Amino acid sequence: MKQHSKTALTLSTLMFSLILISNTSAVEATAKSISLKGIMQSLLSDTQKITEGIFLDNFQMIEKAANNIATHPEIPKPIKMKLMKSFGPKMVDFKAYDTLVHNAAVEINKAAKEKDRETILKQYQQMISDCQSCHNKFKVTVQQILK
Predict the structure, then answer these.
(1) How many CB atoms lie within 10 A of CB 127?
(2) Cβ count within 10 A of residue 122
(3) Which fold has domain 34-145?
(4) Are the CB atoms for 142 and 36 separated by under 8 Å?
(5) Closest CA relative to residue 20, chosen from 8, 28, 32, 9
(6) Rounded to 5 degrees, what angle do the CA atoms 122, 124, 68 make?
(7) Per-residue buried b or exposed e for 92-121, using 16+ beta carbons within 10 Å of the residue's own CB
(8) What are the boundaries of each domain within the chain?
(9) What is the model's pTM?
(10) DSSP label at 46?
């Protein structure tokens, strides 16, 4: 009976270790495969979730999506370096738009926690305006740089 318990514990420990190793590898692979396009697609998805949350009065959905936007992954260093080299001093403007979107998402997140619809809508409109302004100014150039 004791031997059976030791065997079961050993097998359980081994399975747990394999799960941890495979999950770590998946996380590392995901981190390595992050692209600017992938980041933008995630931001779009979370923006759509905020929209849905607004229409459904689902403050948890709004809060989570806004947090995802506020904490999105950084642009991978090789891509960032390429953009910096091409943009030169304009990189400051590119980063400024990211900061504006970040700040609006933080405010949306706070407002969702407080169920403050008015602030959510105001900050959401600001965030969309900032996203659109950035796209108008940089999207075509970024696509050409990253071809």
Answers:
(1) 23
(2) 15
(3) Four Helix Bundle (Hemerythrin (Met), subunit A) (1.20.120)
(4) yes
(5) 28
(6) 140
(7) eebeebeebbbebbbbbbebbeeebeeebe
(8) 1-33, 34-145
(9) 0.77
(10) H
Collapsed DSSP state (helix, strand, coil) of residue 32: helix
| CB-count burial class (<10 Å; 0-12, 13-18, 19+) for 142 | buried
Q: Which amino acid is at 79?
A: I
- Rounded to the nearest angstrom, the gap between the alpha carbon of residue 34 and the centroid of all alpha carbons in its chain is 11
For residue 108, the one-letter residue type is I
Is the model more confident about 11 or about 120?
A: 120
Give tens-digit pLDDT for 28-78: 334 445 899 999 999 999 999 999 999 999 999 999 999 999 999 999 999
When mean pLDDT is compared across 4-8, 13-17, 63-67, 110-114, the lowest value belongs to: 13-17
For residue 46, count other CB atoms closer than 10 A to its CB.
21
* 31 CB-side CA count, 13 A: 7
